[in-house]
Amino acid sequence: MGWMRDETGLGKNAANYVPLTPLSFLKRAATIWPDHPAVVYGSYRKSYADYITRVTRLASALNKLGVQPGDVVASILPNIPAQAEAHFGVPACGAVLNAINTRLDVDTIAYILDHGEAKVVLCDPQFLPFLAEALDQLTGPKPTIIEVADDQAGVHAHGHYMEYEALLATGDPDFDWIMPEDEWESLALNYTSGTTGKPKGVVYHHRGAYLNAMGQVLSWRMTLHPVYLTIVPLFHCNGWCHTWMMPALGGTVVCCRDITAQAIFDAIADEGVTHFGGAPIVLNMLVNEPEKQRPVDHIVEVFTAGAPPAPATLAKIEPMGFNVTQVYGLTEVYGPATECTWNARWEGLEGDERAAIKARQGVAMPFIEEVRVTDETLTDITRDSEAKGEIMFRGNGVMKGYLKNPTATDEAFAGGYFHSGDIAIQHPDSYIQIADRAKDIIISGGENISSVEVESCLMNHEAVLLCAVVAKPDDKWGEVPCAFIELKDGHSATAEEITAFARERLAGFKTPKAVVFQELPKTSTGKIQKFALRQQAKTI
């Protein structure tokens, strides 16, 4: 150790230690690239100089409304410029951003506003009726409502509340941002899906968001001035931290309110989109509407997550000019936390073999210290591509905990790791691959059946657009696989055909014992709502 034993005079000070925060990215970008496009939405075009001015006015205006450091400011907004501005403007006045899922029911919105104690809500006119109903249910003080019109989409203000642009006009463009004194200070509050019981409030800190954003720059192999399309909702893990990340590279955020194949293909052609993230349902949308694609001369980099994409989908989308990287994470780890980092040894793989590798969830991203797959005793499973265990996380990209719920927080962090609840195998090269959510494993006659495996098989059928496999109660076997299938337009299939197709490719006990054709219920982020299908399967 030598001289290291004596560190007198080597302490932290204002010169050598500054709390990490993604707010610093925007300040830097506005200085370096003031004229570069920062936010684009139809005819709406704002440079970095414009962006930081609007963000600063928002921070000042909220401060004038009485928002204090540590207070919560909620938003119920689609992916429009005001939502991107809120990601900087709310924390710039010291407050905590609570971006609320726009598809939630009134009761859940009311619960979130009560539980998070929001002081202000920024709301799109389309969702004001739901918010008004929710306000009637609140037990605590009612928040101030700011209406955020979206004239680009023809969603105009109702006029019942102060409008967003009028709010900004009250703000001081020279307002001094209230930067965190400690990087552990709370930055954002995100509520989990809450498929059972009340949703839990996941709290992010400035340090985690900063490191997540920086780490994804490396994972996505980004260089200066990317053009990012906002398909991942900004209420979903704060858009996987991508809006915070873009100013670090002088990137352009292209807002997308309504997610359609046409909108995505047009943004790539018209705006030069280079990157986007999205659930596998987005990839499916693109491969099933190839006629809407317009010629472009660049590869689009895609992060996909939310559920393992079927190898069949991955095999189809790459030739269309998309390089897909499978990532994986949860709200509790700021969005993506593992990536299927591509290895040169796989370059020769083609077709199904290549797609099967790309369907892995991979290895830890640079800001996650450790990802393990363990048994109940926190012992690592054998890396043999067969043994199953639970995915565990440790690192700076893990949440602070669940708001006002120390019991759930302690359970989630038992043993010094965040317990994901996801079941995976681990390959000899350390890459993990999800086998299932713990609750989605089907146990039939003592045999464990991975719903993901059965779904991947069925997705290879030419008539299948989407599918979900859940457990159906069975007197003899305890439970058996039940497949819910959404067919492609212009295609048909019978239950017998689907069953025969599966039987040729899977063990008999894994073959669906019931097949239901219907539109699948989905969350706003494109995840199939299996909990609803499990309930339905009980009645079949």
Q: Mean pLDDT, as a whole number?
A: 93
Percent strand equals 25-35%
Instruction: Note the total helix count.
Output: 17
Q: Percentage of helical residues?
A: 25-40%
Radius of gyration: 24 Å
Low-confidence regions: none
What's the CATH first level of the largest domain?
Alpha Beta
Q: Can you tell me the CATH topology of the largest domain?
A: Rossmann fold
Name the structural class.
alpha/beta
**Count of individual domains:** 3
Describe the strand arrangement of the main beta sheet, using strand numbers: 2-1-11-10-12-13-14-15-16
Instruction: Give me the count of strands.
Output: 26
Distance between the termini: 70 Å
- Shape from CA axes? globular
Main sheet summary? 9 strands, mixed
- The fourth-level CATH homologous superfamily of the largest domain is ANL, N-terminal domain
The CATH architecture designation of the largest domain is: 3-Layer(aba) Sandwich
Protein name: 3-methylmercaptopropionyl-CoA ligase
Domain AMP-binding enzyme C-terminal: 453-527
Keywords: Fatty acid metabolism, Ligase, Lipid metabolism, Magnesium, Metal-binding
GO molecular function, one term: ligase activity
